[in-house]
Structure to design on (572 residues):
């Protein structure tokens, strides 16, 4: 690492976008929502995956890049698409096994990758209400690989969620997804939080890298996790954004920031 | 047969209290002008079916909605003035929750005239515990399990289209969200449109017609009828501005009094908005239009 690189300043959001973008492979179809996932897809398009097809729930399929929008469906996300259709068409592609990767945000995620976007506490008398599945359940049920992006706090990383909106691996026992009627060969493969990156092993979340460049430590991550976290034997420091990646990120974000604050992708 | 009428006529003759209402436009080209009229006519006890619509917030906040069939709605009452207003009137709606695909498939089953559609999403989730319209069944062919989502057949569907002829042949383009399923599933169909065009325009590009005229009960010309949401090929949107305006108690009261109850129709609304926002506001929302290459239809010149 040169000295110049070591003084680059970046935020946890930058790290999340860069880490997530690396999951996108060239020539694949990636289903993205608004906010950081769309940001990650646009970065991938400008770096290692120029030919990936970006899939957006309202009915948009496109290879050509676009200006980072404040919503999933805008004049800009529609214009110059390869195909415009409806939500069913997009989901049929996924249900039939033709979407490789999907990104979702999450209210909470648990040890076995189950996502709660619905309710904390009793359904009819909630402690907290999230807005519901939206397309998230469909994405995690349909895509070959799903990446979940969220900010990490102990409250958002409970050992077991109160409500399963998007099934991960249930209790971790093998075959549970298929038994439930979900297509084989799907499920969460990665979690990218503002503290670290995770993968899944035997249906359980495993920490694989720590965003040390953002001042995060392993102890801090353990503090913000609601169970005894499995740590990969090959635990690494998250690869920080390069100067080039950051320059592209700033360029992508500029028009939207000029118009308004970045729409928060989180389900608050 | 011409089905052209005013919005007032279309809503008063086709939308009744207690109806199940499909509102088209998933974050794109929503029938705002029609929803304003439904609010103005104080039609209530509604069941709403929609995906990511903004205008329906008014029907909830006014206490006119009993049930919402939805995949996504901000139900945190501490963050939603609209819901807290509904609760203060004891009109908090029941939310029956699906995924987006679940809503789309329920409407598709309605369009197809079958009682349910099998799905591979929502299964395994806790949505099945609280929504009686989603079940897990045995797949008769694979021996495995599969989800089943019950059909939704709305009493009335409302869609805003870029163009439509007086017979109701409506053409809509850009993203379609759940528009095709929703409008075709609905028993009674109201089309609002930017422009009523000659049937000749429709018939030279008939693949674009989203529903044939004979299925349509009313056609209403409503330029800017999807504002503040964008409409492909026509204008950009300003829903963040609109949300900012009507999300607080004071802002909501002012907007409803001045712009919904205080006007007779959408034309008056647009005039008032131009006065307040400036002519330039709407000029800036107009997009730079880029034409497609024409596709050809045609007829045989002579017999073979």
């Amino acid at each position: 690492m040169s000295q110049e690189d070591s003084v680059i300043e970046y935020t946890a959001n930058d790290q999340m976008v860069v880490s997530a973008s690396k999951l996108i492979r060239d020539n694949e179809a990636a289903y993205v929502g608004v906010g950081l996932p769309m940001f990650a897809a646009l970065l991938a398009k400008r770096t290692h995956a120029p030919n990936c097809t970006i899939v957006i729930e309202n009915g948009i399929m496109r290879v050509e890049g676009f200006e980072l929008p404040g919503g999933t469906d805008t004049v800009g996300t529609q214009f110059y698409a390869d195909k415009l259709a409806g939500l069913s068409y997009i989901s049929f592609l996924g249900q039939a096994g033709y979407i490789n990767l999907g990104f979702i945000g999450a209210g909470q995620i648990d040890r076995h990758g189950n996502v709660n976007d619905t309710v904390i506490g009793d359904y009819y008398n909630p402690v907290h209400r999230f807005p519901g599945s939206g397309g998230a359940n469909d994405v995690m049920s349909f895509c070959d690989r799903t990446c979940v992006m969220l900010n990490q706090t102990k409250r958002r990383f409970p050992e077991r969620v109160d409500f399963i909106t998007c099934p991960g691996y249930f209790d971790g026992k093998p075959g549970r997804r298929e038994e439930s009627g979900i297509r084989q060969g799907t499920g969460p493969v990665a979690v990218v939080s503002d503290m670290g990156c995770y993968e899944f092993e035997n249906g359980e979340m495993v920490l694989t890298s720590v965003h040390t460049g953002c001042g995060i430590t392993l102890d801090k991550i353990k503090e913000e996790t609601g169970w005894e976290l499995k740590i990969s034997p090959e635990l690494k420091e998250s690869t920080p954004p390069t100067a080039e990646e950051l320059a592209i990120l700033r360029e992508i974000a500029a028009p939207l920031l000029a118009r308004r604050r970045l729409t928060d992708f989180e389900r608050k | 047969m011409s089905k052209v009428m005013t919005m007032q006529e279309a809503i008063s003759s086709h939308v009744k209290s207690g109806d199940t209402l499909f509102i088209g436009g998933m974050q794109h080209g929503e029938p705002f002008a029609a929803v304003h009229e439904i609010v103005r006519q104080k039609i209530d006890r509604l069941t709403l079916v929609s995906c990511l619509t903004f205008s329906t917030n008014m029907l909830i906040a006014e206490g006119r909605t009993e049930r919402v069939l939805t995949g996504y709605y901000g139900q945190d009452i501490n963050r939603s003035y609209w819901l807290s207003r509904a609760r203060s009137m004891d009109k908090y709606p029941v939310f029956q929750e699906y995924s987006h695909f679940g809503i789309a498939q329920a409407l598709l089953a309605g369009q197809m005239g079958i009682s349910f559609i099998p799905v591979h999403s929502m299964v395994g989730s806790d949505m099945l515990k609280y929504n009686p319209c989603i079940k897990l069944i045995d797949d008769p062919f694979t021996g495995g399990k599969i989800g089943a989502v019950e059909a939704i057949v709305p009493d009335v569907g409302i869609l805003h289209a870029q163009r439509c002829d007086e017979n109701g042949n409506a053409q809509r383009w850009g993203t379609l969200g759940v528009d095709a399923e929703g409008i075709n599933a609905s028993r009674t169909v109201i089309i609002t449109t930017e422009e009523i065009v000659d049937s000749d325009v429709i018939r030279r590009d008939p693949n674009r017609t989203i529903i044939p005229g004979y299925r349509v009960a009313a056609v209403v010309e409503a330029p800017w009828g999807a504002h503040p949401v964008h409409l492909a090929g026509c204008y950009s949107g300003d829903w963040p501005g609109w949300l900012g305006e009507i999300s607080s108690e004071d802002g909501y009261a002012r907007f409803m009094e001045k712009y919904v109850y205080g006007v007779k129709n959408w034309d008056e609304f647009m005039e008032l908005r131009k006065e307040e926002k400036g002519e330039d506001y709407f000029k800036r929302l107009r997009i730079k239009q880029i034409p497609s290459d024409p596709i050809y239809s045609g007829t045989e010149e002579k017999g073979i």
User: Anything to note?
Assistant: Chain B touches chain A through 57 residues (CB under 8 Å). The first strand of chain B starts at residue 20 and ends at 23. The CA atoms of residues 52 and 73 of chain B lie 8 Å apart.
